[in-house]
């Protein structure tokens, strides 16, 4: 089932990754030029399913960290993720045999292809977040027992830092501090594990899902069909099985600050057409909770995606604008992300939310007037 | 010329190191209990002169970093410097054969004895600052071409970080960020070098100077002699040859804040006895410049030491108090610290001071009325 991801696939991959980004993970189009350049030089990159991994493969998670608002302004030069990987490999005394995104949402879905192209390594079809999350401990890798450390970071000036922390939370805390001092953004390599472990702890098939969702939206647009209906239909036979129209309207209020290295804030959407009242969406890089008429309509780790109301193009937190017309889609997180262990690490309480997790499909719909 | 430093020497060492601390470097008495415990368990520690080092020895600089105001409140558990050294050794693939203080002023003069006792290693009689300085690039090691990186840091919870930075300044910037996130203080191991290099780039004999100065002050007190005169006399045949009475009086104003991990501020002293007018002393952890009657009386890297006016006990920046009676002594830095290369790294401009460096012995004295 190994397939090749080519330059021509990159646009679909980015669009699908932006859907799973749920507002965060970094704008996937920003890093795209760098990845495209690497693919142009190295050719296609192999995408392999988790079950194809050798049990004794050395799989390393790679990506970038930093506030999305800074990611927009600081375009990476493209070598940092490779330097981060090399720093980790030097510590392990072993070369990686495959890379995996720690986060399939946003620009971090593309970084493994950059590393894959530059290093001739396959990319594993899966990830540790099944979406985007703001912190490094919010990984199924961590939930199911893989050590985040050693974590290697690199910046565009080739400064490198290796962290060996007592917990994934401490690794996040130290790495975030380093990333801030590296100019607000750093590339990293972490959660080194063998193939047998990767099969057990990864959210499966998330990169092929990104490719598929990106393609579904594009093709619906090309044939002037409804891209939202196509997106929801495409989810049905995946492990992200429930897609739901949550709301549609115009952004009438927007509060957004960069605090502690995160983009934190809230957007209020005034209903248009058949949608009445206001939906508010709270975010910390990613959209965390959607409320309407005093009811929770979707809550983390389920996915809350804001898309352009006309084109179904996903909108990242930092691109939200007053007056923008958006459609909000909820997507159920896969079962591996809804276990009690998983919810303890990236459920609502991990973000300071008082509301308990309730599956999207069990919540009342905002309905239409 | 190898000698043994025993538990009985520790008090003199700390007092002398506090003189070279020029207000900073951490209160040497705080870490003393931990060092004493290690010496009690392991016995005396060998102190070897630079010239006794094998040219192919592996010398590693060890110490702590953090705001002195935090060092007072957070007493180390004593294993962190060893963990930092081990982290560096793992990266180098080689065990250290000797340790050296990166800073002979303040508590960092004692840390190598802690590591020496715990690891059975000799301590080299010299250091990289010849006093205390607030930042890691302010080292003769750096001035004369040794790479600060890799820098290893450890905290009391055994979190460890390894930094490989493009410059000593960037190593400082990243290490400071990590130390802040480790709770405001971290132990570190850095500036790994061979014995031949250590001989060329170190400020020599600074630990035996600390032992000697501490002993001179103690013995003068014991025989009811003038400890200040004894201190100045003891400097005459060292490479810190000029000791000078700068001022004496009462602290009448004190501004001190902890900013960016540093204790920054200014003390004003009103003259008493034969001393007229006011002396102001500006500090960033360490005392940087002493001004009186519109004239500079001493300026970094020359040493400005505030001592208790009765006992000649050195006073660290964080122990300064309104109303305290102090005597200010200036000490000339050794020639290796006054070269143009050295002044470029830790001269007045490195601290944002507009005044050029002028040797203490060439400056007009504040005089007496």
Q: Could you provide a short overview of the structure?
A:
The structure is a homodimer of 369-residue chains. The first copy, chain A, is an alpha+beta fold.
Write the layout of secondary structure elements.
2 copies of one chain form a homodimer.
Chain A lengths: L2 E3 L4 H12 L6 H15 L2 E5 L8 E9 L1 H6 L6 H13 L5 E4 L9 H9 L3 E5 L12 H4 L7 E4 L5 E5 L3 H14 L3 E10 H7 L1 E2 L1 H17 L4 H9 L7 E17 L2 E10 L6 E7 L1 E7 L2 E5 L3 E6 L16 E7 L8 H7 L23
Helix pairs in contact in A: 1-2, 1-9, 2-5, 9-10
Write up this protein.
Two copies of one chain form a homodimer. By secondary structure, the first copy, chain A, is α+β, with helices and mostly antiparallel strands. Chain A folds into two domains: 3-204, CV3147-like fold (3-Layer(aba) Sandwich), CATH 3.40.1610.10; 239-362, CV3147-like (Beta Barrel). Chain A is built from eleven helices and 16 strands. The first copy, chain A, has helices at residues 10-21, 28-42, 68-73, 80-92, 111-119, 140-143, 168-181, 195-201, 206-222, 227-235, 340-346, and strands spanning 3-5, 45-49, 58-66, 98-101, 123-127, 151-154, 160-164, 185-194, 203-204, 243-259, 262-271, 278-284, 286-292, 295-299, 303-308, 325-331. In chain A, strands 14-13-12-11-10-16-15 form a seven-stranded antiparallel beta sheet. Chain A has a five-stranded mixed beta sheet with strand order 4-3-8-6-7, sandwiched between helices. A four-stranded mixed beta sheet of chain A has the order 1-2-5-9. In chain A, a hairpin with a 5-residue loop joins β6 and β7 (160-164). In chain A, α1 (10-21) runs antiparallel to α2 (28-42), α1 crosses α9 (206-222) and α9 (206-222) runs antiparallel to α10 (227-235). The longest helix of chain A is centred in the middle third of the chain and has 17 residues, at 206-222. The radius of gyration of chain A is 19 Å and the shape is globular. The mean pLDDT of chain A is 93. The A-B interface holds A 87, 91, 157-166, 170, 173-174, 176-178, 180-182 and B 87, 91, 157-166, 170, 173-174, 176-178, 180-182.
């Amino acid at each position: 089932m190994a397939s090749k991801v080519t330059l021509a696939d990159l646009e679909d991959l980015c669009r699908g990754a932006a859907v799973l980004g749920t507002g965060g993970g970094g704008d996937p189009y920003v890093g795209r030029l760098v990845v495209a350049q690497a693919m142009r030089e190295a050719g296609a990159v192999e995408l392999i399913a988790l079950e194809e991994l050798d049990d004794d493969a050395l799989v390393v998670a790679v990506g970038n960290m930093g506030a999305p608002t800074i990611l927009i302004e600081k375009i990476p030069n493209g070598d940092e993720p490779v330097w981060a990987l090399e720093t980790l490999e030097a510590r392990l005394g072993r070369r990686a045999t495959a890379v995996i995104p720690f986060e399939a949402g946003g620009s971090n879905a593309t970084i493994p292809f950059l590393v894959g192209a530059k290093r001739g390594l396959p990319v594993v079809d899966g990830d540790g977040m099944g979406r985007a999350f703001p912190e490094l401990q919010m990984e199924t890798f961590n939930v199911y027992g893989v050590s985040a450390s050693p974590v290697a970071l690199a910046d565009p000036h080739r400064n490198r830092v290796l962290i060996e922390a007592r917990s994934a939370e401490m690794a996040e805390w130290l790495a975030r501090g380093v990333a801030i001092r590296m100019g607000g953004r750093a590339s990293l390599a972490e959660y080194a594990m063998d193939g047998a472990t990767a099969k057990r702890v990864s959210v499966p098939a998330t990169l092929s899902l990104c490719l598929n969702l990106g393609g579904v939206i594009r093709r619906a647009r090309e044939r002037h069909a409804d891209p939202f209906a196509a997106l929801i239909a495409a989810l049905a036979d995946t492990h992200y099985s429930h897609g739901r129209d949550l709301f549609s309207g115009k952004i009438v209020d927007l509060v957004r600050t960069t605090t502690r290295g995160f983009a934190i804030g809230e957007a209020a959407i005034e209903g248009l057409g058949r949608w009445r009242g206001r939906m508010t969406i709270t975010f910390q890089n990613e959209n965390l909770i959607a409320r309407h008429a005093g009811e929770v309509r979707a809550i983390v780790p389920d996915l809350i995606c804001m898309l352009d109301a006309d084109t179904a193009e996903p909108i990242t937190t930092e691109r939200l604008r007053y007056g923008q017309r958006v459609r909000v889609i909820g997507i159920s997180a896969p079962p591996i992300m809804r276990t009690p262990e998983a919810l303890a690490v990236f459920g609502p309480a991990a973000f300071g939310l008082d509301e308990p997790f309730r599956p999207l499909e069990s919540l009342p719909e905002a309905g239409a007037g």
